[in-house]
Amino acid sequence: MENLDDLYKWFDENRETIIADHLNECVLLKDNSVIGYYPNTDAALSGAQKNGFKMGEFLIQDCITDEEEIMLYYSSTLLRRGISVEKGQDGFITKKSGVFSRA
């Protein structure tokens, strides 16, 4: 069984090739190989189950660019903190829609 961190690293290093012609789909990965492409994560998870993969043996990734992944991470972090993000014509504008809380 492969370490999922290593599998993600392999995906990230090969992202351009892996996502080519499959933008906005999901890819099922195992053993540094593409198992298949699916329309959504539920379908990819079903594909993993049909292949007999166990949790921790495979990775499902969105076929998005590195820049999109960074923006999704940034946006989700802000939303958890009560800030909404809106995309304007000149880029991303943040708008406070809640209150920061301290841990």
Distance between the termini: 36 Å
Our Rg estimate from Cα atoms comes to 17 Å
Largest sheet geometry: 3 strands, antiparallel
User: Which range does the strand content fall in?
Assistant: 25-35%
Taking strands numbered 1, 2, ... along the chain, how are they ordered across the largest sheet? Answer: 2-1-3
Number of domains: 2
Annotation field: number of helices: 4
Low-confidence stretches: 92-103
- Give average pLDDT, whole number: 78
Question: How helical, in percent, are the residues?
Answer: 25-40%
Count of individual beta strands: 5
Strand and helix layout:
Blueprint: H1 4-13, H2 15-19, E1 26-30, E2 33-38, H3 41-50, E3 59-62, H4 66-80, E4 83-88, E5 91-96
Antiparallel strand pairs: 1-2, 1-3, 4-5
Structural commentary:
This protein has 103 residues and is of the alpha+beta class. It folds into two domains: 4-64, no CATH class; 67-96, no CATH class. The protein has four helices and five strands, in the order ααββαβαββ. It is globular, with a radius of gyration of 17 Å. Residues 92-103 have low confidence and may be disordered.
Short description:
39% of the residues lie in helices and 26% in strands. It has 103 residues and is α+β, with helices and mostly antiparallel strands.
Give short descriptive properties of this protein.
103 residues; alpha+beta; 4 helices; 5 strands; 26% strand; disordered C terminus
